[in-house]
Amino acid sequence: MTEALVRCDVAERVAVVEMNRPSALNALSDGLLAALTGTLTALAADPAVRVVVLKGAGKAFCAGHDLKEMQAGRAAPDGGAAYFADLFTRCGALMQLIPAMPQPVIAQVQGIATAAGCQLVASCDMAVAAEDTRFGVNGVNIGLFCSTPMVALSRNIPRKQAFEMLTTGEFIPAERARDLGLINRIAPPDGLEAETMTLAQTVAGKLGAAVRIGKRAFYEQAGMPLDRAYDYTRDVMVENMLLRDTDEGITAFIEKRKPDWA
């Protein structure tokens, strides 16, 4: 019996999604891309899930695209042009799905996160990494500039640092990734899961409706001019204030008690 490419476990309002191609360092094959997209799409529609943790099985988080599958695509009469366009479209759709999900998505990263794997980390809302993890967009080393990973990376870290990573293909360690803003926290390898779950449970303990509203607004306002961003977030704050549970949360704070949230 073939093991699932993606495993998903939900407990205490947190969904843990595991990419399960450890022998291939969780490279994003066509099958894994489809399974991951399907799993995250289903979770996005589940109101019982407050936070999603994304991790990789085995010794690596994700080594990027499956190069053997990509090379096989060259056998087509067009040299693989249609396949490559479709592949990068599907991968781009996955990367856009993550910030569009109503739940915060936390990457739990170990080993390496390279090329599209680094893109995956950059696409998540937050990330926790083991202290010995290495990050890179190293396609340039084999003659393929990481143009699609560049989109997420350049929206996470300073432009000159992103350009250096893209043009040198050099890896950066977890500490440097944290300093640049690619990840949030670092943990010892044996404490990675605990550190990630601490963050996940902290977020899951907040009012879910408020976090959903806030995540949507976070990404929407980021691309707006300053005056429009303030007009937009004003309306978001009004929407949030009118929630029954927000009224209860403020009242409970004033009365020095725990809120009775539905």
Tell me what you see in this structure.
It is a single chain. The chain folds into two domains: 6-204, Alpha-Beta Complex (2-enoyl-CoA Hydratase, Chain A, domain 1); 208-254, Lyase 2-enoyl-coa Hydratase, Chain  A, domain 2, CATH 1.10.12. By secondary structure, it is α/β, with parallel strands linked by helices. The chain is built from eleven helices and nine strands.
Name of the level-1 CATH class of the largest domain: Alpha Beta
Low-confidence stretches: none
Main pleated sheet: 6 strands, mixed
Beta-strand level of the residues, as a percent range?
5-15%
**Overall 3D form:** globular
Instruction: State the helical fraction.
Output: 40-55%
CATH superfamily of the largest domain: 2-enoyl-CoA Hydratase, Chain A, domain 1
How many alpha or pi helices?
Answer: 11
Strand-pairing-aware structural class: alpha/beta
Q: What is the mean predicted local confidence, pLDDT?
A: 97
User: From the 3D coordinates, which CATH architecture of the largest domain would you assign?
Assistant: Alpha-Beta Complex
Tally of individual domains: 2
What is the rounded Rg? 20 Å
Brief sketch in words of this structure:
With 262 residues, this protein is α/β, with parallel strands linked by helices. Helix content is 49%, strand content 15%.
